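Researcher: Final request for today, and then I'll write up notes for the group meeting. The sequence and the SMILES for zinc ion follow.
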Amino acid sequence: MNRKEFLLQTSALGIGTMLPIHRLAHFFQTPFTTIRRNVGTFTSRGGTIGWLASADALVAVDAQYPQSAQVFIEGVQEKTSHVMDMLINTHHHGDHTAGNLAFKDVAQKIVAHKNVPGLQKASAARRGQTSLDNQVYANETYTTSWKETVGDEVVNLSHLGPAHTGGDTVVYFEKANVAHMGDLMFNRAYPFIDRDGGANIHNWITVLRETISSLESDTVYIFGHGNQEYGITGSKEDVQLKSDFLEALLEYTQKGIAEGKSKEELSTLAVLPGFESFNAPGWSLPLSRNIAAAYDELMEME
Ligand SMILES: [Zn+2]
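Model: Predicted protein-zinc ion complex:
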């Protein structure tokens, strides 16, 4: 790997911090991982892509960025010659939708929650005209749930209200028993809480708990992002831990507000007790941002 490639791949992580080369090598040499029954993950740049690839079905979940999306599209076509039935966007953020551009002429349709195109457009508009010009939007949307049989798999989408954004989807591959959580799950890393994009921490807790109680005990979960020590797939225990973190975040902040502490005073906390693992190596989002978001949400409710 030459210096230019190294820098490219390092910046491609999108987390703004140099990581040890051996980790990068692992990260980039094995972008495709199979979970079970033709369902797996692809990691390169941005949110984890999930896929279903069999003789009679090809589905992608999330699109990363145009360049890595192209790598995914070429790679997944080595697994099956089937036409790409659909791309699903779990939510509107650029690291999950910018690659829609590469899927535009490949996927038969792009499916997302009904709030996603509007949120995507508003977010692109804040970045300027060039960004607006490069958006490709979902052309099929749903409100609370959506289901389609694809080959011998059944794909279920569900939206349980605002959480990470105002348009999050849980994608469940029923036969494989694998759920893609999008950014409802940052595995053991401080999450981005997009209040401008409609996030709600209180309901996020409910969404996570309802999801694990409605799925199987051995469902495998794919996470949008994760602490590299723990990975981007896991079990219901990982999802439960995230909901417990969000609950502890609200409790800590609520208690501080009751004691008359300011947002700045509360934001100096280095770690929430019991959630030390959330201080993920190389992760750029600090706990202080989460506390600030919790503070704003709680004050809004007063
Ligand atoms: Zn996101």
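Model: Residues 91, 93, 164, 183, 192 surround zinc ion (CB under 6 Å). DSSP finds eleven helices and 15 strands in the chain.
Researcher: Thanks, that's everything.
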